């Protein structure tokens, strides 16, 4: 523990000393006092270990050991002398296994010190010495010189290529001439501790030398050199032929914290964003108040200034720089706001700066030495010659990286270690970012020019305030920011069309607002956001997750080639994703009376959201493979292995059940990893395992089923269990392996191919997944070859013993009744390959007798299709929320789901309109009840989905649709394009419409989603304008609902309009149903005319007009109703009959079901020309949009139609 000893102090003196130390940092405690006598030799460590690199540090030794020490005052005569240390402090390291160091508070008392008095010494002064340095020729035979002068600068200790040295600069007593002296002899490195700026020294035995690269000349010490204090009586000048006048060195004034604040206030007006600024060189004295990052060399002074020592080498391991210590900084660079997000002013020490420790800390603050090797902070700093802004950004990224993921891999796998040819996870993450941020023209750092040049140049001299190009925040921060962006500026009216919302009733209006989504990419954030996380899979949610110390983020992963994601080997790996879609599903519970109240957010009763991310596996970079975790478990438990496949990919095959549960089951990373690191290898355990290869032929969805978990009693406490099941085909027989490493590449298939199809052992089984085995749900897919591995097992009948029949034994002979096998929590699932990637012979031997059919959407829509359960794939073109059918029986899972807080109300059903491809006319509707949506992610417009085992149904209008049932399952094949709708919409973008003929629609009645025709409006058959109740849809008249039994409490009405018109295009006729704003377009009314007409209807409640087509039909005349007369005359006006461009869809619920009939001859008139054409029965269409056609557009479209007609003839 830390302590201090003051042999000559009284108790009151010690208390006053401790009190003064605590005054600066009240939250810290003072060093405890101990009463110990310390006696030892002062040494520089040269004689202890001759092979050890002498680093210039001082030590105290005796016959029991040696310990580093720091002194505020040191004399060279003290080396190798015995001392009594009356006042000292012992500071241990934070790592208990490593020794600490001593802080010598006062000068030691010598026991056997002998001083040497030098004789008269010939000396050369700076003016003459400078002439030697600047002469053209370097005389190698010149005798050694002695140079005297005032110490004007002392550089830091440097270690380059395993050689330690430093520079000092002596100035002439009478002028500004100075000369550099290189000190590199191991016996002379201790000079660095005794040199004091402003003192006068004489150095003997100097030689002249020059740098090979730049040719710069300097003096260098020899083995016989001595450092002596200058004494004029003992020095006699050694004259030279000429003298030299040089330039002065840079000077700086000493600043305090208050003076520094004044300087910064004056510089505020000069700041210009993104402009190159030049740092100011100052001197500063302050107290260390906090160690920001010892590995990065960052310290906080006076709680307001950041000191960066990274550009110097801390070879003394930063001993003495503890909170509470006082330091003097000479010729350091002042940088104001180098990084936008950095809160402190920065003082950067370059190689021309001097850092002097003025006093030691009196506090019991910890000491953690920086890493002497493998320090990634310094490695990247010097490799890319980073300026201060980029370095501070690098430090922030590394600090966040280590904080988020060190708990997963522990101290056994340091993520920030920089190793030769084996970069760690952090280095893999940062190197590409630094290469993109650092200009290619950036020159390497020349430390000798930085030290020796008269005109100072260093990386800290000029800088530009950096706005970080990217960020990698914690996952909790990602979810928080995504949530903020999804609700930022949100208005419910954004989700609705302004023309449609005016005609919606209360239920439809609030249902349309109940579910929406928002998609965000990396570029949606400023700066660009990079996702980092350890891939996990949770048995609670049965979903893939990215995890760090702060939180988890559910994810959906796909392959660009359309194959499902099944890489079990990636579990536990650290992933980096830069191209992704962050999806925020938004759930609103609202009770808006009508569209007029959408701006009043008081009607929003509850807001919830769900955040997940989806990306492609090809966009993932593995920063840290699960290999490290697996190998660690191998060393401890001998129960895991890692092998390479033919393709070279790493495959995690097995871990012990305990490790797997920690790894897969929502671990608490800040606790379990430390336990793993402390865990000691137990007694030898068996490493044998049993494996079974199988092929997935069918997979059912995740839902609540009437299953009971093993080990639970039936009866009390019974509840539905969340589970899923899969039908598989066993391939070969179970195999016993002495170690998982020995598992080969599909030996079962190799034997089946060599023995022929008769020798293949094939048996179906129904796998039941419950409890912790639910973690395998995201990895198990149709047509995938997998292997179950049972750890620490040697029983080849382990699978047979756990099987049980689903039906009585007498029915087991039927092939349709496979055995049921509950998957155990400790089993490991390993994906091998896909059946489509097997060699043809092996695939044929596996697929013999199997009927695996994936239908196409046109086949499902075909009238000749006979199957009741269908599987198909398609792209979602629209997602809408609709009311559940009233005839649907309430699900038994509804009550359970409500208890668990479902995000979507149970009375809702999602309708997915699925097509073969964008713009395809073939569309199939899929209905999914909200009770199944809890575990389904990625169902967004634009996504390609594989639907399995949906129930195919035909409505009474002969429309084919599918519903999601208990045996159904969906898989995400491809993700939506990055350009998703924004603002948020329940539906995707409408596909482009194509121009068609009415006669060509007959073969596609069941599948046409939207099309366009150029047609002629013949007449308006019916017209109805109503003012209805927003709650019950009854007639709303004079400000109240007309329903009396029971009375309706609503006080809000909405406008609704409908019309049925007859159109023809020369090839056929169609009845078109128009609603609301499309009625005004059909009638050719402007917005003002339409608004005035609807205002007149409000007092009447409703107005209807019918135009009879045959004898004996017509409307009920009301001559006194002016609105009805106006509408009647408008509908009969010849101005209504005009060419229009009509976007439409099929009326799938017509009032009269269309019966096929023979073609009939009909007369058509175009201007003055009358012609006859064969037409079929009138189609019934829904109007989507109406556009007026100009004469030029009409001529162009007619000519286009004529060309299409002639090409088909």
TrEMBL record:
Per UniProt, subcellular location reads as:
Chromosome, Telomere; Nucleus
Q: Where is this region: Disordered?
A: 634-655
User: Keyword Nucleus: yes or no?
Assistant: yes
Which Gene Ontology molecular-function terms are recorded?
single-stranded DNA binding; telomeric DNA binding
Superkingdom, natural source: Eukaryota
Q: Which GO terms describe its biological process?
A: positive regulation of DNA replication; telomere maintenance via telomere lengthening
Identify the GO cellular component terms for this protein.
CST complex
Family under the similarity heading: Belongs to the CTC1 family.
Record's keyword annotation contains Nucleus: yes
Q: What is this protein's record name?
A: CST complex subunit CTC1
Keywords for this protein: Chromosome, DNA-binding, Nucleus, Telomere
């Amino acid at each position: 523990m830390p302590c201090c000893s003051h042999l000559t102090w009284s108790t009151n003196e010690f208390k006053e000393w401790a009190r003064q130390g605590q005054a600066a940092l009240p939250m810290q405690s003072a060093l405890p006092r101990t009463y110990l006598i310390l006696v030892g030799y002062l040494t520089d460590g040269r004689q202890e270990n001759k092979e050890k690199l002498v680093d210039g540090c001082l030590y105290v030794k005796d016959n029991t050991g040696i310990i580093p020490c720091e002194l505020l005052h040191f004399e060279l005569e003290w080396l190798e002398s015995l001392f009594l240390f009356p006042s000292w402090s012992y500071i241990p390291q934070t790592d208990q296994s490593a020794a600490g160091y001593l802080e010598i508070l006062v000068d030691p008392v010598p026991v056997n010190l002998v001083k040497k008095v030098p004789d008269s010494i010939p000396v050369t002064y700076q003016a003459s010495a400078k002439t030697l340095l600047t002469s053209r020729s370097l005389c190698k035979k010149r005798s050694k010189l002695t140079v005297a002068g005032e110490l004007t600068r002392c550089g830091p200790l440097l270690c380059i290529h395993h050689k330690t040295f430093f520079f000092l600069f002596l100035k002439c007593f009478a002028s500004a001439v100075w000369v550099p002296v290189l000190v590199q002899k191991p016996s002379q490195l201790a000079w660095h501790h005794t040199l004091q700026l402003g003192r006068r020294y004489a150095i003997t035995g100097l030689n002249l030398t020059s740098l090979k690269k730049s040719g710069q000349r300097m003096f260098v010490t020899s083995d016989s050199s001595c450092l002596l204090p200058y004494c004029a009586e003992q020095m006699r000048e050694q004259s030279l032929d000429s003298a030299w006048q040089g330039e002065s060195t840079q000077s700086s004034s000493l600043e305090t914290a208050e003076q520094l604040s004044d300087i910064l206030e004056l510089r505020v007006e000069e700041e210009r964003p993104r402009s190159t600024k030049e740092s100011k060189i100052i001197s500063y004295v302050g107290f260390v108040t906090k160690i920001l990052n010892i590995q990065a060399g960052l310290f906080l002074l006076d709680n307001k200034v950041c000191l960066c020592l990274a550009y110097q080498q801390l070879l003394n391991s930063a001993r003495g720089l503890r909170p509470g210590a006082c330091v003097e900084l000479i010729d350091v660079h002042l940088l104001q706001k180098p990084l936008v997000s950095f809160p402190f002013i920065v003082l950067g020490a370059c190689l021309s700066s001097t850092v002097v420790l003025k006093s030691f800390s009196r506090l019991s603050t910890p000491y953690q030495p920086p890493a002497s090797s493998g320090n990634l902070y310094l490695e990247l700093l010097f490799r890319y010659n980073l300026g201060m802004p980029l370095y501070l950004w690098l430090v922030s990224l590394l600090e966040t990286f280590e904080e988020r993921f060190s708990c997963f891999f522990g101290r056994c796998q340091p993520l920030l270690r920089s190793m030769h040819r084996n970069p760690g996870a952090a280095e893999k993450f940062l190197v590409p970012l630094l290469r993109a941020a650092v200009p290619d023209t950036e020159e390497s750092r020349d430390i000798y020019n930085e030290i020796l040049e008269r005109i100072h140049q260093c990386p800290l001299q000029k800088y530009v305030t950096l706005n970080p190009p990217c960020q990698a925040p914690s996952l909790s921060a990602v979810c928080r920011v995504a949530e903020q962006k999804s609700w930022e500026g949100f208005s419910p009216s954004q989700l609705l069309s302004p023309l449609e919302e005016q005609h919606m009733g209360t239920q439809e209006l609030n249902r349309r607002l109940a579910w929406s989504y928002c998609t965000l990419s990396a570029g949606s954030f400023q700066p660009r956001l990079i996702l980092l996380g350890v891939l996990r899979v949770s048995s609670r949610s049965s979903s893939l997750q990215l995890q760090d110390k702060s939180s988890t983020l559910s994810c959906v992963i796909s392959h660009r080639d359309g194959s499902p994601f099944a890489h079990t080997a990636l579990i536990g790996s650290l992933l980096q994703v830069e191209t992704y879609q962050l999806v925020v599903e938004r759930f609103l519970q609202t009770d808006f009376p009508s569209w007029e109240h959408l701006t009043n957010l008081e009607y929003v009763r509850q807001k919830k959201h769900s955040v997940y991310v989806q990306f492609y596996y090809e966009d993932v970079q593995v920063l840290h493979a699960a290999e490290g975790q697996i190998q660690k478990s191998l060393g401890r438990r001998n129960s895991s292995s890692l092998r390479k496949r033919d393709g070279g990919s790493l495959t995690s095959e097995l871990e012990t059940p305990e490790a797997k549960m920690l790894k897969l089951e929502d671990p608490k990373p800040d606790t379990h990893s430390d336990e793993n690191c402390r865990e000691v290898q137990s007694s030898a355990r068996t490493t044998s395992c049993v494996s079974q290869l199988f092929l997935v032929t069918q997979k059912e969805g995740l839902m609540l089923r009437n299953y009971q978990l093993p080990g639970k009693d039936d009866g009390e406490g019974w509840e539905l269990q969340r589970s899923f099941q899969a039908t598989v085909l066993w391939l070969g027989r179970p195999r016993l392996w002495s170690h998982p490493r020995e598992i080969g590449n599909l030996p079962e298939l190799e034997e089946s191919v060599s023995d022929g199809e008769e020798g293949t052992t094939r048996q179906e089984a129904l796998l039941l997944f419950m409890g912790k085995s639910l973690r395998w749900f995201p990895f198990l897919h149709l047509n995938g070859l997998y292997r179950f591995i049972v750890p620490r097992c040697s029983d080849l009948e382990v699978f047979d013993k756990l099987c049980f029949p689903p039906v009585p034994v007498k029915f087991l002979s039927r092939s349709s009744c496979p055995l049921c096998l509950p998957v155990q929590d400790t089993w490991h699932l390993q994906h091998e390959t896909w059946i489509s990637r097997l060699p043809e012979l092996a695939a044929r031997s596996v697929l013999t007798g199997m009927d695996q059919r994936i239908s196409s959407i046109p086949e499902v829509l075909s009238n000749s299709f006979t199957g009741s359960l269908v599987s198909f794939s398609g792209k979602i073109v629209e997602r809408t929320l609709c009311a559940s059918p009233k005839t649907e029986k309430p699900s038994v899972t509804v009550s359970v789901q409500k208890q668990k807080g479902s995000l979507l109300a149970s009375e809702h059903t999602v309708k997915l309109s699925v097509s073969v491809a964008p713009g395809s006319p073939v569309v199939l509707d899929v209905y999914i009840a909200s009770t199944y949506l809890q575990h389904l992610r990625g169902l967004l417009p634009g996504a390609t989905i594989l639907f399995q085992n949906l129930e195919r149904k035909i409505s009474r209008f002969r429309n084919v649709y599918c519903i999601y049932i208990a045996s159904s399952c969906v898989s995400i094949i491809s993700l939506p394009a990055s350009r998703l709708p924004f603002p948020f919409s329940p539906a995707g973008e409408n596909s482009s419409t194509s121009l068609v003929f009415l006669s060509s629609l007959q073969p596609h009645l069941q599948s046409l989603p939207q099309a366009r025709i150029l047609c002629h409006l013949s007449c308006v058959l019916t017209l109805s304008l109503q003012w209805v109740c927003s709650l019950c849809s009854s007639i709303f008249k004079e400000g109240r609902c007309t329903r009396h039994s029971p009375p309706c409490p609503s006080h809000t009405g909405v406008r609704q309009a409908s019309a049925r018109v007859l159109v023809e295009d020369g090839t056929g006729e169609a009845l078109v149903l128009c609603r609301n704003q499309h009625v005004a377009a059909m009638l050719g009314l402007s917005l003002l005319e339409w608004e005035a007409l609807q205002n007149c209807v409000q007092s009447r409640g409703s107005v209807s007009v019918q135009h009879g087509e045959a004898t004996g039909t017509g409307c009920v005349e009301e001559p006194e109703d002016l609105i009805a007369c106006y509408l009647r005359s408008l509908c009969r006006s010849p101005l209504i009959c005009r060419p229009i461009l009509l976007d439409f869809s099929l009326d799938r619920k017509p009032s009269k079901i269309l019966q096929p009939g023979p073609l009939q001859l009909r007369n058509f008139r175009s201007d003055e020309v009358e012609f006859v054409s064969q037409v079929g029965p009138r189609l019934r269409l829904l109007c989507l949009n109406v556009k007026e056609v100009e004469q030029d557009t009409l001529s162009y479209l007619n000519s286009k139609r004529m060309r299409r007609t002639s090409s088909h003839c």
